Amino acid sequence: MANDTFLRVEGLAKRFPSGKGELTVFDKVDFGIAKGEFVCIIGHSGCGKTTILNVLAGLEQPSAGYVFMDGREVCGPGLERGVVFQGHALMPWLSVMGNVAFAVRSRRPRWNRAKIEAHARRFIELVGLAGAEHKKPAELSGGMKQRVGIARAFAIEPKMLLLDEPFGALDALTRGVIQDELLRIVQATHQTVFMITHDVDEAILLADRILLMSNGPNARIAEVVRNTLPRDRTRLTIHHDPQFYRIRNHLVDFLVHRSKLIQQGTTDASAGGSGGPIEVSPGLDADADGAADGAPPDTMPATPVPKLIAVK
Q1: Residues 6+ apart with CB under 8 A from 102
Q2: Which pLDDT tens digit goes with each residue over 294-312?
Q3: 8 A C-beta contact, residue 9 and residue 220
Q4: Which CATH superfamily is domain 5-80+158-288 in?
Q5: Contact assessment for residue 77 and residue 58, using Cβ atoms and an 8 Å cutoff
């Protein structure tokens, strides 16, 4: 691992007792995250992604291995890590302001009410909820509730943000809008982020690197994909870059094909120079253009013109 690694995970494993002995969900998980880096993790259900996030949050203890953040071992929950879960997890009796202010008060117990609310309002406005400060969760849409959760996490100004599929339950249009907002906020705050997602396109849009997990049980980080697309990418322009299709095809091929082979032991992921998973940059592989599932490198997929048939 590089010396400038902000978060370091070494030899992480999680085992549970089962009727047939001990079940190893994942084992020998090693990776690092640099300060200000956005990392997504992708893998099939059951490979232990949420368990890894819970260990990073200090909400769950590993069976083996260690997690170090900013030079200190993570042994329990702490306000230096903000978490956004799949559900919004808001307190229904509090308003938008009340939910965000509650988190700020936990982080800054010596601040007076005016200072707490001013700080909370800054992050409420940052997620586009200005004017909704006094609404209760029951008065908000699903997307608005999730924005409150994001504002609450950012408001404590954590050293690291942990996101567990925060947009999974939202419709496609709302999810796209909040993805754009998250990207804008992360770029403005230089926040370090670890995020679970099942959405390949979402990972390519948001992440600097993407961790690929093999299937469970006995899952592990099989490969690390470096996102070589320009950092100022947007949902509206990303598909015009030929790198998008190379990276996307690589991720889909892993999820559909190679992850199963690794689990079965038919093939093995190559180790990197430090003994951890290999890091690849498929976006720079021009030879991948023209693959079966790919689109032309400099154009969007052509939309076929429907054939008109006269009805008699």
Answers
A1: 91, 94, 152
A2: 444 444 444 444 444 444 4
A3: no
A4: P-loop containing nucleotide triphosphate hydrolases (3.40.50.300)
A5: yes
Read off the pLDDT of residues 168-202 as tens digits, 9 standing for 90 and up: 777 888 788 888 888 888 888 889 999 999 999 99
Selection from 13, 50, 42, 29 nearest residue 258 by Cα:
42
Q: Tell me the per-residue pLDDT of 70-85, one tens digit each, with 9 for 90 and over.
A: 999 999 999 899 998 8
- The DSSP bridge pattern shows strands 21-34 and 5-18 to be antiparallel
Instruction: Write down the residue that tokens 């090693």 correspond to.
Output: 30
Measured between alpha carbons, how far is 248 from 263 in angstroms, rounded to an integer?
22
Rounded to whole angstroms, how far apart are CA atoms 229 and 282?
11
Please report which residue ranges of 72-129 form alpha helices under DSSP H: 96-107, 113-126
Q: Beta partners for 72? A: 69
Residue type present at position 86: Q
CB neighbours of residue 173 within 10 Å: 9
75 neighbors 50 (Cβ within 8 angstroms):
no
Nearest to 31 by CA among 206, 216, 160, 224: 224
**Measured distance CA(59)–CA(77) in Å, rounded:** 6
Tokens representing residue 199 in the block: 């959405």
pLDDT of residue 59: 93
Nearest one of 195, 213, 287, 284 to 247, comparing CA atoms: 284
The residue assigned the tokens 């819970």 is 54
The DSSP call for residue 300 is P
Using only the alpha carbons of the chain, give its radius of gyration. 21
Q: Name the residue ranges covered by the structural domains of the chain.
A: 5-80+158-288
Residue 46 Cα distances to 14, 218, 241, angstroms: 12, 10, 33
Q: Which residues of 6-17 are buried (b: 16+ CB within 10 A; e: fewer)?
A: bbbbbebbbbee
Measure CA 232 to chain center.
18
User: Using alpha carbons only, what angle is made at residue 186 by residues 181 and 189, rounded to the nearest 5 degrees?
Assistant: 125
